[in-house]
Structure formats: C-alpha cells, structure tokens
Amino acid sequence: MPSSHEIERRYRELRAAMQRDRLDAVVVCGNQYAGFEGAVRYVSGFEIVHRYAYVLLPLEEAPTLIFPREARWIGDKTKPWVRDQVWPEVPGRWLRQRVEERRWKRVGIQGLDFVMAVRDYRELENAGFELVPWDMAFDMVRAVKSEEELAAVRDSMDIVVDGFRAMVRGYEPGKTEAEIMAPAVERFFARGAGPRMMNIILSGTNGEAEAHFKVPGSRAVAPDDLLLYSLELTGVDGYWVEFSRPLIQGKLSPRTAAMAEAYPAAMEAGRRLLREGELASSVHRAVVEELARHGFGLGHLSGHSIGLTMLELPNIGAGWDIELRENMIFSLHPQVVDRDGQVCLYTQDTYRVGKDEGKQLVNVPWRFYHGGEDQA
Q: Does 366 reside within a domain?
C-alpha cells in the first residue's frame, strides 16, 4: 500500500491536470486483461482479479470505486484506500446519473478506446455532458515515478531476473518451449507476481526466430532453435517490467549473426538518449538509424513508458515529440526484422530516464545464453 504522502501526491497532480483541461471529473478504467488493470490500482489501491472496475475521481469530491454487480465477491474490497464503493447493475448508468446529479459538463475518460465496457459507454455517449478522451494526460501525470514507485519497480526487476536465471540453468534441448519457461514462472509465482504476467516467445529453427509472438507450447526444442522469451510481469506492488535475452545452444544462422552485430549498438544508442529533456522520438530515431546502417528495420515501436499499467504513454516511436523527464521508466525493446519481415532478433530492457543518460535497471549482459550458466 502506498504511503499517505504518495496517495496525496497522485491526487494533487491528477487534479492539477484536470483543472488545466477544465474537467469536472475523470473516470479511470481498468479490466482483467493483463497489463490493463493498473490505472484503477494507481488511483484507488484496488487490485482487479476478474472482470473490470472504474474509479470516479471528481475535481472537488472524494473518489468512488465502481464495480459491476456480478463482481461483488471478486477481489478484496478491504484493501483499497478508496472506501466509497458501489455495485450497480450497469456501471455506466450509475456514472451517467451521478454526473447529471452534479451537473458536471466535462468528464475525462482514461481507457475510453481500449478498456471501458461497451455497455457502459452506451449509457454515456448520448448524455448531456462532454466525454473527453484522457489517456495521454493521465499517463503523463504518472509517467515520472516517485521514490516509492522506483523501489517497487526494482523489486519487479529482481523477480524477473531471478526467474530468468532459473530458466537458463534448466534450459536444454529436448524440452518443450513451455517446459523451458516453467522454472521462471515458478519463481515468478513464488515471489508474488500471481496472474500479472505475460510470458510469450519468438522462436524458430536453424538458428533463427520467426517474427511473430506466440504462447510457449508443446514443441520440442532442438539445439539450433533460437528462443526469445519475453518475460513481462509485476511484483506484489503491481509495477510492470519487461526483460528478454536470447537462448540457443547450437549455431546461429548468418542472418541472425548479422542482426546480432547490429543489436548492441542500437540498444546503446537508445540508452544514451534516455535523458532529461530529450524527445522520445529522438530515442526511436537513434535506434532506427543504427539498425538501418546494418540493413535492418524494426518490427514495431522501439519501446514505451511502463508502470502500474504495462503499456503506458508516451511511446518511443516516430512522431512522439514528448520531452523525457528524469525518473520516467521505459521498456526498450526494438524487434529487428529482415527485409522480408519473416526473421527477427529481439530483446527487452527496462530503463530509468536519468539526467544525462538512461540507467539500465539490471546488470545482465546481452549475449546468447546456452543453458546451465551459474550466473546469467
């Protein structure tokens, strides 16, 4: 549970942004989909374990936690610091009635495009007040992490590296993709990650990885298979981190070897620019230009802000001319693809924006791991 000082800080900064945007209230949305639950936890302390929830944060009143009636017995309702809690049949109808009772004119919605339930939006869309998309504004308020939040991020990083090391120690050909990941997941659960994980993989044969993510399954792994596990999780406090290193015991293909020559320099070019006052688009451009110099492109964005929600804004991508500030946290994960978009190399690292350069949050060298290493 955050301290009272931390909770007050969050509300103070959110309400300052609301006042700037002339909002009477904000509806903060969260649901069970991995990584989309964190905004509700940020403003209420409630941990979603099933279905969805909202928090109504007025400019000048105490907040309210809103659950659909069918979720009354799901999740520990004693944990959140927001004690005003309601369970309407249709949350959107309750929200519309509350806004109309208060005669509010402008209501911000965090999660309007991806999170709010359709049945609730239908109750709000034709009401007599303006709905203001507020994802970017909300994420910019929470992008700079406090010291309490940074401690939680570091705990998550310690957990993910612990699991990675367990996975490397047990990695050997003949096991399935799922069996190789199993020791990592065991550590994650044991240390409190619970269901807040998204562990997926890029993999392939003959020293290459296919350029699409999938769930680790029952395919038996050969020595020359390249495995790029994407380990994404939170600790007990709910802060997401992302981490990945390549595994292979056999021989790399010439294409993968060429990508490997480009990759460290591209990551380092991005890391150096994760600094106070730099533009997020400049970080992306530095990564793209370094890869292009070696004849490769990107499969998607270079990265994104990360915190209690897995995918926070701003992104590290073209057109994101947003100034970085110290203590923002970013996942940097450029996916290098060949000209045909079929083969890739991938890694993930989580960084803190520093005054002069990005600070990598773990000290795990980027290299190809072969299995059985005592110190990964």
A: no
- Strand bridging mode 312-316 / 303-305: antiparallel
Q: What is the pLDDT of residues 155-196, one digit of tens each?
A: 999 999 999 999 999 999 999 999 999 999 999 999 999 889
List pLDDT tens digits, range 221-246.
999 999 999 999 999 999 999 999 99
Does one domain contain both 247 and 336?
Answer: yes
Where does a domain end: 116, 143, 170?
143
Q: Are residues 160 and 305 in the same domain?
A: yes
Cα distance between residue 204 and residue 208, in whole Å: 5
202 shares its domain with 116: no
Q: Are 69 and 49 in contact (CB under 8 A)?
A: no
CB atoms within 10 A of CB 119: 12
